[in-house]
From TrEMBL:
This is HTH cro/C1-type domain-containing protein. Transmembrane segments: none annotated. The lineage of its organism: Bacteria, Pseudomonadati, Pseudomonadota, Alphaproteobacteria, Hyphomicrobiales. It comes from the Bacteria. It comes from Methylobacterium iners. Residues 55-110 form the HTH cro/C1-type domain. CDD domains: HTH_XRE. InterPro entries: Cro/C1-type_HTH, Lambda_DNA-bd_dom_sf.
Amino acid sequence: MAACSTSSLPAIPRTMGPAEMPQTLQPRHPETPFRGMPDQPDRPRALLMTLARNVRAARLRFGLPVEDLAYLADVEVAVVEAIERGEGGSTDVSALERLAWALGVTLSDLVGTGS
């Protein structure tokens, strides 16, 4: 396998302040933190609540206690509880995929985008 030469690649700065950012990447309002799409500010919260309802409904459909679902999905019980409360925003995708697998559904079914 041939070695890849990086000598022709431009240097990437370690930090890039707003002045150096391309115009398309600059925030519209730098003092306001990003909270979803400007036209859909509550979308992340709605997504978490849909995920919470769908995980709980699927778990109860199988009659699984939280502990058993956590065991089957190889996640902590606290993760399942947080997701079912709608507080699973920091949960990684692989944990959500394992939950979906354990419940016999797809990830898109859990987040409400499945058909």
